[in-house]
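To start, an entry.
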Amino acid sequence: MSLPDLTALPSADLLRLHARISHALNDRGILRSANNPTGDLAEYIFCKAFGWTQEANSQHGYDARDGSGLRYQIKGLRLHRARKTRQLSAIRKLDEKPFDVLAGVVFGDEYEVVRAALIPHELVEPNARYSTHTNAHLFHLRDSVWELPGVEDVTARLQAVEL
């Protein structure tokens, strides 16, 4: 599909287009909030790929459950011109074990799945750094994570999801 050249559009029109796209994706159930779509897209794509049940937005510590009751904290990040870091959003109360598995996905600039992994909780804590500034643990989804024993590479499974 050929996409239109957006460079000539005024900024106000680009913002209106962004808002309309967000509404359309929300209507389709892909987005669940008006926030940056990366987190919602990560949750949607993991749940669709694995058949997990998404929890309510107000659930603390995990985002979905599978049929056996395992709890998944789902995080995504998008690499683009201005963001090269692989740091995921803050993970709160990690020591209380609010989830069993961290499901992480790295999206490219146009939201294509670059890499995805399932990381057991017991591997997250020793590989995360506590930040007093955010009062949370910070975890980087670097390529080395896929080399940790017990991490499952699910990149192909997420790439196969039809949006």
Summary: The first helix runs from residue 11 to 27. The longest strand covers residues 71-78. The two ends are 15 Å apart (CA to CA). The helical segments are 11-27, 37-50, 121-124, 155-159.
